[in-house]
Queue: 2 jobs
Job 1
Amino acid sequence: MKKLALRLLVGVVILASMNGMAQRFAPRHRPRVIAPPPVIFAPVPVQPVVVGNVPTQPVVVAPAAAPAASPLLLHGPWLTYPDTEAMTIGFVTAPLCGGGVEFREAGTEMWYQLWHANAGKLVRHRQQHSVRLFGLKPNTEYEYRLVIAPPLTRTLDHTLFNQKDPTVMVQRMERISSPDYHFHTFSDQPTLYTLSVTADLQFPAAVKERILRNYYSNGGMGASHLFAVLGDGDNVFDNFEYSYMKTLVDKIVQLGGSHRPSLFIRGNHEWRGMESDLWCDYFAAPDTNSTYFSFRCGEVYYIVLETGEDCPPYLMTEHFSGDNVAEAQLFAEQNYWLQSVVASEPFQTAKFRVVLSHTAIYSHAEKHMHDTVAQICGDLFKKQFPQNKIHLWISGHTHCYCRTIPGASMVYQLDVPKYALYSGEDYTFPCVTLDGPGGGGIENTLLNMSVEPDRLSVIVKDEAGQAIDAFAVLQDGAILDLNNNTLPAKQVGVTYHP
Ligand SMILES: [Fe+2]
Ligand SMILES: [Fe+2]
């Protein structure tokens, strides 16, 4: 009986202390809502966005205001994996911190709370935090803030389990807010927006930052609604924090990355180095828990493919890591996933389809990577399956700008092609390959793709903001050539392997 009374007393103490903690942590006079299920937002009809011409004066996404100052927050927050009803917020904390996000629809009172948790427990033994917000309304503005649980400072004494101790019972949380912490969910209706893409930023840190800032100011990145880094963000990943977080992600966050979603896509360089296996700790895609994913924005369906290293997984050479031995598993898994994506209703009903990957399904000269993409895609996107038609494939890797002209042995390039390319006969959509350091041509390029009611309008620029190529893809796949040899990229002949 005594034992039962003691247990009841302990239960009351725990509930009382939890209640006290909740009251201290909750915003005053506002109810606290924990872990909202997808139904927290009642379905509301979304007004279709009026379709018209592309705005001549797009709203420029402001760079970050004052960076949020907290010794507990080391990187981010960055927005990624956008969708019509979801958004992922990533950030890196000091060691042994827990982390979460509070968010609400702009202009409303109620904040909702989601934690980076595993089976109900805060994840403390990983500094990389990722919180997927779900059940959101399409085409709606949200604001958010971070909540960080600092490291625990003492262990619990289980002999004192019925003794109140505020240092244990009231967990101190740090809430981090900023005017930059907001986002707009993608629309599921026809809508005008711009995607900016660059690739192969394998430059010294200062050059990488200069290029990004110039793209932001001169190239159109500042006005884009979605930004993608298409692989080779650095040369090698022996130190992930330096190679990718400090020299790339931090810079993107400073250029609006807390309120404009970014896609961080793995190239072959991200397969190299002693810490290259950390990629998914930072950037695992929500549905696949891997490096490939798909999503829909307005009338465009995007497929992001993982195209691997540029050589087979040799066992520990000077250059290539033997740790890539499992790549074949990844490609087979990806092929299985891709078949279901192509059969899905969002893909089949999309007006436009765009693929983003570090290398291309055709128009590149490297056999290993060509074979890899062929293994992933099979025949899905070949011309005998018009129901799966792709409108545009955007890639990088070769460090030579190139845009194919479907159905012809001609491409737009800045140089004369040096090698025969692969598989041009099988595909009816254009492949763009963005530039990179060395390799002839220029050092880097930014592609801006505007999604318009009847076309994808594409302009590719150099770091100074000068156009080097331009074209548009219509819904039926026809290409409007807006270059016609008037821009630096010129039509040249090319040889395709069968
Ligand atoms: Fe590269
Ligand atoms: Fe590459």
Job 2
Amino acid sequence: MQAFISSSILTNPCPRSLFPRPTTQSQLLLSSVTGARTSAATARRSVQGDGSARCVVTPASSSPAVAAAATEVPEKMKAWAYDEYGDAGVLKLDEAVSVPPVGEDQVLVRVEAAALNPVDSKRRMGKFKATDSPLPTVPGYDMAGVVVKVGSQVKSLKEGDEVYGHISEKVLEGPKQYGSLAEYTAVEEKLVAVKPKNIDFAQAAGLPLAIETAHEGLERAGFSAGKSILVLGGAGGVGSLVIQMAKQVFGASKVAATASTPKLELLKSLGADVAIDYTKENFEELPEKYDVVFDAVGQGDKAVKVVNEGGSVVVLTGAVAPPGFRFVVTSDGSVLTKLNPYLESGKVKPIVDPKGPFPFSQVVEAFSYLETGRATGKVVISPIP
Ligand SMILES: NC(=O)c1ccc[n+]([C@@H]2O[C@H](COP(=O)([O-])OP(=O)(O)OC[C@H]3O[C@@H](n4cnc5c(N)ncnc54)[C@H](OP(=O)(O)O)[C@@H]3O)[C@@H](O)[C@H]2O)c1
């Protein structure tokens, strides 16, 4: 199927899109805004760097929601999408998805890199059906890219700014139908931040959801200087950032973390004082207790056994009994802005899984890899397309 899709892109610049004629209110809205922009614009064919052709629309005048639009933005874009819930096989590369319209508080970003999160997989499997946006869905929460259009109420960003962010304020409650695994994505100004200059788009794309989760979890747990912490799942996307943030941002007195044997050195390099090999030891049977346990694995039942009296156990997935609690991250660009100095100084480093970055054509393979549960740091997609 992958080969079929790739060859159809080369031979037919306008194949059928996964996105049907508008039927839902949101699709009608998207369609009407895009249509309005097209009618007031000049359409022409453009040859891309890869030799393929596509329609490029140069806006003749600004739409009411768009303050300035000097950058050329095509009418249609390539995006990964699915129109039914299921395993990674439901994902299809669609080259005729409408570029999302830009709300007055939003920016349109040309996505240079995106990253995958386990929640993308859980959502695609239909786990959050009741609160999901309508199908078809372009998945993806994390992105880094360049602002190509700004809404009329946008205050601090302008075209050409390099930004990164997690594009859906609430991950599970009505997440964006048009996510980041696409050439363009529209996102509220308040959810993004200017990209740290010292890291590239691929590194930046892996940060937002994971670092915001790490930050929010540590804050909710009341973590502060001088406290000790145990991080369960220290080598994963979230855990690798919890270790670094606990040490470098919050001033932990002691950081312990769990991983399998080949990843113990990584834990140490991230700042863990104690690296526990979960294939050889049960952390809940060791004598040490901690002020905070941060569980990124789903071991809440064991985590509550190793917390000091009066301490906190924060879990990201699975059940937990008091004093443990679970939360779902809220996207917030101001957290990224606050953490930028730690990234720019190199005190906190993005960890990109060495099997990647995966090219845009290999999103299915990248998801299959993420879903093994063995990723180190973040699974990143770059370049796009
Ligand atoms: N509630 C929220 O807001 C929120 C936000 C972000 C993520 N999450 C959830 O949190 C979980 C972790 O997310 P993530 O992005 O960090 O996942 P991830 O990057 O896919 O995690 C993979 C890592 O987990 C490690 N791991 C697996 N089993 C382990 C075990 N028994 N002990 C220690 N480490 C283990 C693996 O290391 P080894 O190869 O060494 O086993 C691997 O490095 C997911 O369930 C995700 O959905 C929730």
